[in-house]
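User: Can you recover a sequence for this backbone? Please restate the input before giving your answer.

Assistant: Of course. Working from this structure:
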């Protein structure tokens, strides 16, 4: 009897270890193997523009003053022109961000295809194809940084609303403006939906992942969700294990790791039928939140807010009170 009990205990322990896979994922130096190179090159071509997108967004000042002056003085043609000339280049920039989100969407779907296909399990894929795992992480890292900057910049939506109102007014007066060749009505509608989201890039990735799952009907949904939960577990273990942390050569890698962990949790929560917070979730949510809470508050507040406000299932009845309390 005692041996049977021991056997059951071992089974439980093994299952727990299986639930939370852990290995070191080399976010700093992973290089593509020959098998990864084609997809890696394709994703790299997209990611090489990510830093300039962030720099552009960070430098985005908006045309608030010019718009206010134009609205307060509707008969002053000079002020109307000044506002319009300030807004047009900004709208072209916003179009560039939006088009980048479409490229990112395609890149993510290629990565998911590579990281979930049989015969390997998602854990084996991530362990074997570390350069692709690193690119997946870089997409998530970019996404959270982009959305943090966008959330702090209300000028984006004000500028775009003004642009759309002015275009509509001109259409009523049968005027055609050159910028309409650049941002026509259909493009403006799509951009409007994108920027209406609090976290537009994350929404794009969630939609892309959901779309990937529904398009690939022969691929079990677990292949995709296990890929996400494995990534979350690996990040958590790397953050809480001194031996792994000591392998990072830069403090930046810690922040990178935290952003990636939060990004995959949010994706998992949007794609998995019951989400990341339920008891059956393959993500150790308490452990992940604990790791974040152990960091200096000013560095992780944005990430905790992302878990509070951009997940789908946090307020479900199945979410334990303890997890909710941790995120209060």
């Amino acid at each position: 009897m005692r041996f049977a009990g021991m056997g059951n205990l071992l089974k439980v322990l093994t299952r727990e270890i299986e639930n939370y896979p852990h290995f070191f994922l080399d976010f700093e130096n992973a290089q593509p193997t020959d098998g990864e190179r084609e997809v890696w090159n394709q994703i790299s071509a997209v990611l090489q523009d990510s830093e300039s997108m962030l720099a552009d967004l960070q430098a985005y000042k908006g045309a608030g003053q010019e718009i206010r002056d134009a609205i307060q003085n509707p008969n002053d043609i000079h002020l109307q022109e000044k506002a319009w000339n300030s807004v047009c280049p900004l709208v072209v920039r916003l179009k560039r961000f939006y088009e980048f989100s479409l490229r990112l969407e395609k890149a993510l779907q290629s990565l998911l295809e590579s990281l979930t296909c049989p015969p390997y399990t998602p854990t084996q894929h991530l362990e074997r194809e570390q350069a692709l795992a690193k690119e997946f992480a870089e997409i998530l890292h970019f996404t959270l940084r982009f959305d943090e900057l966008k959330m702090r910049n209300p000028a984006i939506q004000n500028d775009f609303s003004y642009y759309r109102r002015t275009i509509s007014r001109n259409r009523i007066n049968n005027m055609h403006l050159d910028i309409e060749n650049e941002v026509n009505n259909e493009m403006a509608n799509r951009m409007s939906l994108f920027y209406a989201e609090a976290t537009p890039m994350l929404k794009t990735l969630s939609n892309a992942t959901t779309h990937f799952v529904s398009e690939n009907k022969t691929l079990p949904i677990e292949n995709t969700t296990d890929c996400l939960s494995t990534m979350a577990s690996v990040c958590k273990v790397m953050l809480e294990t001194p031996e792994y942390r000591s392998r990072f050569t830069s403090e930046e890698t810690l922040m990178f790791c935290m952003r990636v962990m939060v990004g995959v949790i949010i994706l998992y929560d949007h794609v998995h039928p019951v989400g990341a917070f339920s008891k059956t979730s393959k993500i150790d949510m308490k452990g992940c939140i604990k790791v974040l809470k152990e960091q200096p508050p000013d560095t992780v507040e944005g990430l905790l807010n992302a878990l509070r406000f951009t997940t789908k299932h946090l307020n479900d009845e199945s979410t334990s009170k303890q997890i909710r309390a941790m995120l209060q």
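That completes the design. The first helix runs from residue 2 to 19.
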